Every structure is written in C-alpha cells, then in structure tokens.
Amino acid sequence: MQIEGCSALVVGGTGGLGEATVRRLHAAGAKVVVADVAEEKGRQLESELGVRYVHTDATDERSVRAAVEEASALAPLRISVDTHGGPATGGRLVGRDGSPLGLAGFRTTVEFYLTAVFNVMRLTAAAMAKNDPLDEGRRGVIVSTASIAAYEGQIGQLPYAAAKGGVVGMTLVAARDLSPLGIRVVTIAPGLVNTPAYGKAADQLEAHWGSQVPFPKRMGRSEEYAKLAVSIVENDYLNGEVIRLDGALRFGPK
Q1: Would you please indicate which residues are annotated as catalytic (active-site) residues?
Q2: DSSP 8-state secondary structure symbol assigned to residue 235
Q3: What distance in Å separates the CA atoms of residue 111 and residue 53, rounded to the nearest whole number?
Q4: Which of 65, 102, 194, 220 is deepest in the core (most CB within 10 A)?
Q5: Which sequence spans correspond to the domains of the chain?
Q6: Secondary structure letter of residue 113 according to DSSP
Q7: Which of 222, 182, 174 is nearest to 202 (CA)?
Q8: Half-sphere exposure of 189 toward its Cβ, with a 13 Å CA cutoff?
Q9: What is the pTM of this model?
Q10: Taking a C-beta distance cutoff of 8 angstroms, is the pair 184, 177 a contact?
Q11: Are 173 and 125 in contact (CB under 8 A)?
C-alpha cells in the first residue's frame, strides 16, 4: 500500500505509540487525522505538523464516525492505526480476603481495550469498503494494538489480558471477513514500551524492566512501534497476523 496521498486515521494519536505513528505517516505523505481525547496535545500536533485533530472517544460510535468522516473527506481512507488506551483495573480473581474480583472494573477494562478496538475496526472497515480498489483489489489496511499480556498475562492482569486476548482473537477472523473487500488486518502486540505517559517514573521502569528483556536489554521505544506499523501498511502480504514487538521478552507470573 502506497502511503503518499492516502488518508490515515490514528486513534490514540496523541499518546507515545500514536504520536510516533502520526509523525511517521505524515512524513511518508499521508493526510493524517489524529483521533484522541487529549485536546491540548492534539491541537499541538495539528499546529506543528498540519495534520487534523478530531476529539474522539474510541468507545463511542458517533465520535468515531465523525473522525472517520473527517479522514475520508481529506482523501480515501486506506490506513487505520489504533493505539488508544484507557483505564484498566486489576487484581487477583479472588482476593486475600476471599472477595471476588469486581465485575464493574472488568467490564470497563474490556470496554476500552476490546470493545472500542472493535468499534474502530468496524467503522474504518466500512469506510474503506467504499474506496475504489487499487491494483490487486486493495482498499485499505487496519492495524490494531494488543499486548504480550494477551499471551502471558501476569497475576492481577486478568481483565487486561482478557481484553488484549480478544484483540488477538479478532485479528484473523476480521482479516478473513474483509478479504473479499481487499482490506488487510494486522495486530501489533508490544512488550514493554517506554512512553512519555510514565513521566518521572520512566527511568525507574527502564532500570527495572530493561534488564529483563533478552535483547536489546532495554524497554521498547515508540518509534519502533511506528516503524512496524508503517512496514505493515507498505507490505501487502502481511495479513491476519499478530506480530510481537518485545525483544523476546516473555512475562513471568509476577
């Protein structure tokens, strides 16, 4: 898929992974729409790069539709990258006091980390389906974000691991569903990525987690996610796959 001249929607585009992806797609010639709830950072990127910012709640249908429509008005929407985050609760399934893990927190985590991914996927796919096909029938590519917790969720991560496991599980099925339309679906499952969201704790996290990564012995970088996302867009034979981006890290129980 040639990036130049296409419209690209980056959901969660003001966060570490999202911003790096916005910058790389913009540099490659895409007309980028930053869809996020972080108004100040979104406007900053809009002013600096000339991209469009649309206040977007990934869990809300009308909100995502508005962002999709904005992107489609700029050029054919052929690229969607979803990196949005949200609140995540945790805890053991049964606590030390014998109480079960809360249902409301589980539902909230799944809403943000699975249902919202489905919401973005279905609405961007519907827009891409209207595109005129390129050679080989290509109409677009959807990149979602899971986590290696989908495979090796740690103690206390059950809601998050369940949600990310759902994203992994959707990938191949969505690729099969959309194959007649010429739309590819690929998911990136990052390990530990050191993003600005950690703030002052970043150095401490790097010291703790970086040494546990087999190689390179450091946490991942947002730019490495962005490079992979762009590679997925450009490589038409990547489809229906979940790609781990983790330096060969495998989470232990704790």
Answers
A1: 160
A2: -
A3: 23
A4: 220
A5: 7-245
A6: I
A7: 222
A8: 24
A9: 0.96
A10: no
A11: no
Residue with tokens 């781990």: 244
Answer whether residue 197 shows pLDDT above 80: no
pLDDT over 80 (residue 205): yes
- Residues contacting 187, CB < 8 A, separation 6+: 143, 144, 145, 146, 167, 168, 171, 241, 242, 243
Mean pLDDT of the chain: 96
Using the Cα atoms of residue 207, residue 160, residue 154 and residue 151 in order, give the sign of their dihedral.
negative
Q: What is the pLDDT of residue 55?
A: 98
φ, ψ for residue 15, nearest 5 deg: -80, 180
Total Cβ atoms within 10 A of residue 155? 13
CA angle at 143 for the pair 103 and 42, rounded to the nearest 5° = 80
Cα gap 171→6, rounded to integer Å = 23
Q: What whole-number distance in Å separates Cα of residue 205 and Cα of residue 223?
A: 18
Distance CA 183, CA 141 (A): 5
State how far the Cα of 11 lies from the Cα of 33, in Å rounded to an integer.
8
Dihedral sign from CA coordinates of 59, 119, 165, 250:
negative
pLDDT of residue 42: 97
Q: In the chain, where does DSSP find H-type helix?
A: 16-27, 39-49, 61-74, 103-110, 116-128, 149-152, 158-178, 202-209, 222-234
Which CATH superfamily includes the segment(s) 7-245?
Answer: NAD(P)-binding Rossmann-like Domain (3.40.50.720)
CA distance between the termini of the chain: 41
What does the pLDDT read at residue 200?
72
